[in-house]
Write a structure and sequence with these properties.
The structure holds 2 protein chains of 2 kinds. Chain A is an all-alpha fold. In chain A, 40% of the residues lie in helices and 0% in strands. The longest helix of chain B has 25 residues. The chains are: A mainly alpha, B mainly alpha. At the A-B interface, helix 1 and helix 2 of A face helix 1, helix 2, helix 5, helix 6 and helix 8 of B.
Chain lengths: 174, 165
C-alpha cells in the first residue's frame, strides 16, 4: 500500500481544482423564486387539506345525523307490527259479545240483553283485527257477525268460535 | 478558507448567500464532480434553510443540507446510469466543455473514485477546514468514524494520485 497523501498537498490540489468555479450571477433570484414556489405549494397543500378535512367531517356528521330517520335502518318487521297490531282493542267485540259468561240471558222478555264486555274476547279474525270494523258495515257478508241486540233474540255466537256459542243458549242459562 | 463578509447592512439570508454561496458550490463540486449539479444542490439547500425559518447555526445547516443532497444526487445518478440507454458516439457539447475543466482535474477524478463517506470526510476535513467534531456532525457519524474515513481516504488518494504522477 502506498503512502497516504499529505493533507496540505491535498488541500492545495483541491483549491486549485475548484478555483475556476464561478457561481452563476442569477443564483439569488433563482433561490427567491424557489422559495416563493415552495411557499405557494405549501399553502395550496394546506388549504386543500383543510377543505378536504372539513368536507369529510361534514359528510360524516350529516350521515350520523340522518342515520336514525332513514327508513332502511329501521327494521321493517318492527314498523309493520307497530302499525298492524292495534294497541287498543278492536271495536268489534263491543258490538258482539263473544264471552258467554257476559252474554246474559234476558230475564224479562221485553228487554234486550245489554252486555258490555269489559274484557273483550278474541276477535273472530285475529290476524287482521283492525280491518274488521272498517269492513263490517260496508260488506253484507259480515252483517251476521254483528247481531243487533233486538228484544227477544239472544245474541248469536260467531261461527268461528263454535265452542263458546252453545253456552249462550237462551233459556238454558241461569 | 471560508469567506466571511460583513453582513451588518444585509438581511440574514442575503448575508448568508453572499458570504457562503460560492464556497458551498465549490464544496459540492468536489463532492459531485459537476458544477451544474453542485449549483442546483446549493440552491436547494438555501431554499430549505429559508423555508426552515430560524436556525441556530444556518451555516452548519447549509453544510449538512449540501452533503445530504449531494448524497441523494449521486444515488440518483447511479440509478439513472443503470437504466440509461447506450450512449451516442462522443460529441462534446458546450456544456460539457464548461464542466470538463473540473472533471479533468486528477484530484477530482481521484475523489470520485473514493467511497462516498471517505470523499465527504476528506473534503469537509481538508478543504472546508472543519474540525473532526464538526465533520462528524455534518456527516452524522462519530469522531472515530471521521478519523477512520479520512485515514482511509488519504491512503487511497495517495495511491490513486501516485499512479497518475
Amino acid at each position: 500500500m502506498s503512502n497516504p497523501i499529505d493533507p496540505r498537498v491535498l488541500t492545495a490540489m483541491m483549491d486549485e481544482a475548484v478555483a475556476p468555479v464561478r457561481p452563476r450571477p442569477d443564483a439569488l433570484p433563482v433561490i427567491h423564486r424557489g422559495v416563493r414556489r415552495r411557499r405557494i405549494l405549501r399553502r395550496t397543500t394546506a388549504a386543500v387539506g383543510v377543505v378536504a378535512a372539513v368536507s369529510v367531517s361534514g359528510v360524516a356528521y350529516g350521515a350520523v345525523q340522518s342515520g336514525p330517520s332513514h327508513p332502511g335502518l329501521t327494521g321493517p318487521a318492527g314498523r309493520g307490527h307497530s302499525t298492524a297490531v292495534p294497541t287498543t282493542p278492536c271495536r268489534v267485540p263491543t258490538a258482539i259479545p263473544t264471552t258467554p259468561e257476559r252474554t246474559t240471558v234476558p230475564t224479562t222478555p221485553g228487554r234486550a240483553p245489554t252486555a258490555v264486555p269489559t274484557t273483550p274476547g278474541p276477535a273472530p279474525t285475529p290476524t287482521t283485527p283492525c280491518r274488521v270494523p272498517t269492513a263490517a258495515p260496508t260488506t253484507p257478508g259480515r252483517v251476521p257477525t254483528a247481531v243487533p241486540a233486538t228484544p227477544g233474540r239472544p245474541p248469536m255466537a260467531t261461527p268461528t268460535t263454535p265452542s263458546r256459542a252453545p253456552t249462550a243458549e237462551p233459556g238454558t242459562g241461569s | 478558507m471560508i469567506d466571511t463578509v460583513d453582513t451588518q447592512d444585509l438581511d440574514d439570508f442575503t448575508g448568508l448567500f453572499v458570504g457562503h454561496y460560492g464556497q458551498l458550490v465549490r464544496m459540492a463540486a468536489l463532492l459531485l464532480g459537476d458544477v451544474a449539479a453542485a449549483e442546483d444542490v446549493v440552491q436547494e439547500s438555501f431554499i430549505k434553510v429559508h423555508s426552515r425559518g430560524r436556525v441556530s447555526d444556518p451555516l452548519a445547516y447549509l453544510r449538512q443540507a449540501v452533503v445530504n443532497l449531494s448524497r441523494s444526487d449521486l444515488r440518483r445518478r447511479l440509478v439513472a446510469r443503470r437504466h440509461a440507454p447506450r450512449p451516442m458516439p462522443d460529441v462534446a457539447s458546450a456544456e460539457e466543455d464548461a464542466c470538463a475543466a473540473l472533471a479533468r482535474r486528477e484530484v477530482v477524478v481521484a475523489l470520485r473514485a473514493l467511497p462516498a463517506r471517505q470523499r465527504e470526510a476528506v473534503v469537509l476535513r481538508y478543504w472546508a477546514d472543519l474540525t473532526e467534531a464538526q465533520t462528524g456532525e455534518v456527516m452524522g457519524v462519530s469522531i472515530g468514524s471521521v478519523k477512520a474515513y479520512t485515514s482511509r481516504g488519504l491512503a487511497k488518494l495517495g495511491e490513486l494520485l501516485g499512479e497518475t504522477r
